[in-house]
Amino acid sequence: MARNIEAEEYIKSAPDTLLRQGVDTDDRKKQRFERIIRDAQNSICKAVEEIDGKKFHEDAWTRPGGGGGISRVLQDGNVWEKAGVNVSVVYGSMPPEAYRAATGNANSAPGMTGRVPFFAAGISSVMHPKNPFAPTMHFNYRYFETEDWNGIPGQWWFGGGTDITPSYVNKDDMEHFHGSYKKVCDKHDPTYYAKFKQWADDYFMIKHREERRGLGGIFFDDLNNKDADTIMNFSEECVNTVNSAYLPLVTKHKDDAFTEAQSDWQQMRRGRYVEFNLVYDRGTTFGLKTGGRIESILMSLPLTARWMYDNHPAEGTPEFDLIDACKNPRTWV
Prior knowledge:
about 325 residues
């Protein structure tokens, strides 16, 4: 596959900015968003390390034409089996099919050929704890720009969200997690939480299983209906809520006793996670179609997962309750 972004050049430590020097370093929108995601990466990794007791491994790289990334992964820790927090700044061009994947609109730019010049910056994370009663969590916040192309004016938009994927339903945990994000949403727009929760419930559907990956959260994309600073303020508060919304749940459950059967169930739910990410996730699809860094794109996958043939939990069991909640989204707050 032809690469649509330049190859990485690995460096010992990340520079102060990954923006193109003298070109975008005075672009307030790009500059501010990069600072938001770099600060969030630092604060979230620091908080996770304090709980786990193990440090993240960091890889950093740049590209000749500008941009680069910082991947931090904590693997086989004391609390998390795998946790990753990635930051990337990308300049490149994408084929029309990648443009459609980025916008989520399969009918955008019909019949167009050539490549669409773009800028993208974002932070993404997935955390898979060892204990089956501690939930997996994912978040992603991004800013995207395209240049004028084939008569289509350049566009900008924000996207993102934070969602939770437990192996077992804990009502108190879900009320805390969803309540944390409802509070943020209500502060910025009273319509946001209901709209973005529904969007998450729709987006994280594993269509071939007719069930959702987990128990949702918030999700939004192509958001440009307000001025950029207003939406950026919302994105900033969302990413800065990750620690308080998620980490107390891990601290609460990291030492819970569990059986081998419960561990096996966690492994099967991770299998569902893998299925969604490789088949449906827009970020994964976009990264693969533009020739991005594979280790960063697939960082979201767990170290271990399990597929058991024709497994159906018995009605009335905690495992059945999770499946029901994934098939029939619940109102938590």
